[in-house]
């Protein structure tokens, strides 16, 4: 195995995947608490999917970040036939409850090889690592706790989440922030070609990385998996 000096990883559908029961319970919560127009479970689930896809596309196009609170308010408005009266919505309570649902229905490792590959990279002593992730309904502050729970955190040097820095992939600013955070005492002569970003999204991950002049690897949405990193060369 030939090591890059620095490995950047996407999170969702690269290292972790959603627990299906989480999405079900999230819909149930909105069905119980914000459903003034008596929409069906299926209708609310469709609304979540629509907002998720729309906001993801907006973030990727604008390079900025629509926050989770804004996404939840969109859901509440849409399932109530675009009512914009949010006076009864306590965002602090909503944030707390949404995080608790995540913890009760924890995301899963994307595959059995994830931890093994991260461990081999870390054990080499030659490389540093980070997570560079766009966020949606689940905030970076929550994902950091998920990462620790799943055993990923001990292999990662730093984490960057779009909601915390107001930038989203494929924004060059987000990738530049990642490059600026790399420990140059460990890599004093770091070149862009010494860095690779790994993810599942051809646009946000691959094109974003290539626009910065760093290497990229597309996995999981094609015929490659994270284990292919072990056979990649600089």
TrEMBL record:
According to the UniProt entry, its GO molecular function terms are: hydrolase activity
Enumerate the UniProt keywords alphabetically: Hydrolase
Matches recorded under Pfam families: HAD_2
Name under which the protein is recorded: HAD family hydrolase
